Amino acid sequence: MQNNEYPCRVLVVEDNKPTRDLLKMFLQGFGATVVAEADNGEEAVRAFDAHKPDLTFLDIEMPVKNGMDALAEIIAIDPAAHVVMVTASSEMNVANRCIDAGAKNYIRKGVAPGVLKLMLKAQLDLCETC
Known about the structure:
The protein is of the alpha/beta class. The protein has a single domain (9-126), classed as Response regulator (Rossmann fold). Helix content is 45%, strand content 19%. The chain has 5 helices and 5 strands. The protein has helices at 17-29, 41-51, 67-77, 92-100, 113-126; strands at residues 9-13, 33-38, 55-59, 83-87, 105-108. The chain has a 5-stranded parallel beta sheet with strand order 2-1-3-4-5, with helices on both faces. α1 links the parallel β1 (9-13) and β2 (33-38). α2 runs parallel beside α3. The mean pLDDT is 86.
């Protein structure tokens, strides 16, 4: 049964398909609609421009165009975009660079699935358009 608590439209950008599928499954479980997905930064920018999602989860390390470059282009399209970076890095300087570049927050990969689910829910809670 799907929970319709968060009717927002989400873009999921992650080059690792199992991770992308896990993110989508958790988000859809909260009632969010995944309007598009991408596996590199170039596709992310095109998908963002085409779908104008309420919330974007954007991986940092990807082929073709990395997440930081894609973030800059997304923010140029919509300075108010609600983008949450997804990273395997636990270094604070990476998180700070993301926030300085316009991301609203970041989520660290590699945490237990239950923790990831809570982190995703927290981002949905913070998204004003959801």
